[in-house]
Specification:
The protein is an alpha+beta fold and 67 residues long. It has one domain. 28% of the residues lie in helices and 12% in strands. The strands form 2 sheets. The protein has a two-stranded antiparallel ribbon. Strands 3-4 form a two-stranded antiparallel sheet. A hairpin with a 5-residue loop joins strand 1 and strand 2. The chain is elongated and about 50 Å long.
């Protein structure tokens, strides 16, 4: 999500109804995984470290929210 703030054409703006609006070249029904590189990884790493045998040898794709 950090990339959205660094690009002039990507940052969300506040819509008239109070929601955040992201304008771009995708359909309005496109689902996008949003990942906060600072806050999100610890949530997944902690779960893995709590039960390492459960995740050993597995590939994980983790994202907190898809909007």
């Amino acid at each position: 999500m950090e990339n959205f703030q660094g690009q002039a054409f990507l940052p969300p703006r506040l819509g008239g109804d109070g929601t955040r609006v992201m304008e771009g070249h995708v359909s309005w029904i496109t689902k996008m995984p949003l990942h906060d590189a600072i806050e999100d990884p610890g949530k997944f790493v902690c779960a893995i470290l709590a039960e390492p045998e459960k995740f050993e040898g597995k590939r994980l794709c983790a994202v907190e929210r898809v909007v």
